[in-house]
Structures are given as structure tokens and as C-alpha cells.
Design brief:
single chain, 151 residues, alpha/beta, 5-stranded mixed β-sheet, 15% helix, 19% strand
Length: 151
């Protein structure tokens, strides 16, 4: 866990995100770097369905996505999966600026990747092992959303 990807991502955020910027994250904070000591004005929880829509009053300047809660959680054909696909393919108002997953010297753990919730079997739950060293992507807002939400 000493080389968990979240530590590298925290460092990148401290070095590259200004105090005036806002950060949004998708999913549970469990899968993300620690946000509490970053010098930013806002840290917002964002639902993937709201990305590139008018439902958010403020689109964050940066969006942090973790493999602990990303496209793999949703079945084909869902709005959420399409939104993640658009984000990852550069078809959203955000552009990927950083991605990191540490490569341990000895990878002794077999960590199962996330699966869509409809296929999730609680009997196979592995505890916290699948929360270690997620693949984390950071996206920066490139343009204003195509619509302006009501104040």
C-alpha cells in the first residue's frame, strides 16, 4: 500500500491545481486520493450522469475518476456507461490530463476488477482488497458546458 496510486495523484493535484480551481470526483471517496488538504476552493461529488448536462450549477474545473467506480460498474446500454465512454474518448467538455496506477515491485494480490452492479454477487465480496491501488484519471474542463444552467 506504500505505493498506492492515490498518493501520486494527491501529489499531482497539489502541484497542478490552483487555489481558485474546483475539483469534482465521481463515486465514493474511498477510491480517490485525499482531498481534505488540497488548496482548492471546492471539492464536489459529481454524478457521471450530470457530466456535460445542465443539471450541475457549477461544472468543476477538474474531474477525478477512479477505477473503483468507473465505466466497468455499469452494463452496456446505460446512460452512465455512455457518459464514461464519452469522457474517456474525449467527447465531453473535459480532456484527460493525468492518469496513474502504480506498478508494485511484487504484485502478490489478485484483485478482481469492478463489475456492473447488476452482476455483483455479495457472496464473492473480497473486503477492502479491491480498493488498493486504483487506476485514477484526472480530466480538466476544456470549455464551458454547451448550456448554461439556471442560477
Amino acid at each position: 500500500m506504500l505505493n498506492d496510486s492515490r498518493y501520486t495523484v494527491e501529489s499531482w493535484l497539489r502541484q497542478n491545481v490552483s487555489e481558485q480551481a474546483s475539483i469534482g470526483f465521481i463515486g465514493s471517496k474511498t477510491y480517490h486520493p485525499r482531498f481534505h488538504d488540497l488548496p482548492t476552493k471546492d471539492v464536489l461529488k459529481v454524478d457521471i450522469a450530470d457530466v456535460d448536462s445542465c443539471s450541475l450549477k457549477q461544472m468543476p474545473d477538474f474531474l477525478v475518476v477512479s477505477s473503483g467506480h468507473d465505466i466497468n460498474r455499469y452494463p452496456e446500454g446505460t446512460v452512465e456507461r455512455q457518459k464514461f465512454s464519452n469522457l474517456y474518448e474525449g467527447k465531453a467538455d473535459y480532456q484527460q490530463v493525468f492518469r496513474h496506477k502504480s506498478i508494485p515491485k511484487w504484485n502478490l494480490l489478485k484483485i478482481e476488477p469492478p463489475v456492473p452492479l447488476e452482476y455483483y454477487d455479495k457472496r464473492l465480496k473480497k473486503g477492502n482488497i479491491n480498493k488498493i491501488n486504483p487506476d485514477i484519471r484526472i480530466f480538466e474542463r476544456q470549455q464551458l458546458p454547451s448550456c448554461i444552467p439556471a442560477p
